[in-house]
């Protein structure tokens, strides 16, 4: 969601940074994005701490609790919008008979709040929403994609295209057996960082997905 279909000004990763740095660290936002983007947020905190060779689960859990409180406060006043042309893309995909699933490293509580703030309706604008708290294993494991497929009655991952703004999104798509795993540069990571995960395509805006699908179908 964040960075791909939702524009929330990286508030989640800024909050991860702030929660970790409150414990005496000095991580930059770029460091947080490089290792944490796309991950379930406790795992993102563990990955950030690992940059300083810190493997302290008690500390990670405490930071995660702080993070959740800070994020609740941030989202109470944050102006959340869709990424440019997201709703237009959803309509175009639906017109082609393609279902739309959003999946996210957010908890369900946070994800549903974002969807509500934007005004999207599950079952209308998007067909299903799968969150980190819905499955046993998070990215890069395939659980969220497989759960979305189950929700939508899709039995073959070769009928699925995964789009995301982080390398771990690309890994998730590949591990799920998706027909295509596509990076997008509107969010957490750069073209070069996305390319390290060997996506099938990298796009710069959502509507480019339609051209990719047309090209592949031809």
Automatic annotation (TrEMBL):
<dbReference type="InterPro" id="IPR036412">
    <property type="entry name" value="HAD-like_sf"/>
</dbReference>
<keyword id="KW-0378">Hydrolase</keyword>
<dbReference type="InterPro" id="IPR006439">
    <property type="entry name" value="HAD-SF_hydro_IA"/>
</dbReference>
<dbReference type="InterPro" id="IPR022468">
    <property type="entry name" value="PhnX-like"/>
</dbReference>
<dbReference type="GO" id="GO:0005829">
    <property type="term" value="C:cytosol"/>
</dbReference>
<dbReference type="GO" id="GO:0006281">
    <property type="term" value="P:DNA repair"/>
</dbReference>
<dbReference type="Pfam" id="PF00702">
    <property type="entry name" value="Hydrolase"/>
</dbReference>
<protein>
    <submittedName>
        <fullName>Phosphonatase-like hydrolase</fullName>
    </submittedName>
</protein>
<dbReference type="InterPro" id="IPR050155">
    <property type="entry name" value="HAD-like_hydrolase_sf"/>
</dbReference>
<dbReference type="GO" id="GO:0008967">
    <property type="term" value="F:phosphoglycolate phosphatase activity"/>
</dbReference>
<dbReference type="InterPro" id="IPR023214">
    <property type="entry name" value="HAD_sf"/>
</dbReference>
């Amino acid at each position: 969601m964040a960075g791909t279909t939702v524009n929330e000004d990286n508030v989640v990763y800024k909050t991860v940074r702030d929660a970790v740095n409150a414990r005496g660290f000095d991580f930059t936002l770029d460091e947080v994005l490089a290792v944490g983007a796309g991950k379930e947020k406790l795992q993102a905190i563990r990955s950030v701490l690992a940059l300083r060779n810190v493997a302290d689960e008690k500390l990670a859990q405490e930071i995660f609790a702080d993070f959740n409180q800070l994020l609740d406060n941030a989202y109470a006043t944050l102006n959340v919008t869709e990424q440019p042309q997201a709703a237009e893309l959803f309509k175009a995909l639906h017109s082609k008979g393609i279902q739309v699933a959003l999946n996210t490293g957010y908890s369900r509580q946070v994800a549903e709040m974002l969807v509500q703030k934007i005004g999207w309706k599950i079952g209308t604008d998007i067909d299903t929403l799968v969150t980190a708290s819905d499955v046993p294993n998070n990215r890069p494991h395939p659980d969220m994609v497989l759960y979305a497929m189950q929700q939508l009655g899709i039995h073959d991952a070769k009928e699925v295209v995964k789009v995301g703004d982080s390398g771990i999104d690309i890994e998730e798509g590949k591990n799920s057996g998706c027909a295509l795993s596509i990076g997008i540069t509107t969010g957490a990571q750069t073209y070069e960082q996305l390319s390290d995960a060997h996506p099938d395509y990298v796009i710069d805006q959502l509507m480019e997905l339609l051209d990719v699908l047309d090209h592949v179908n031809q």
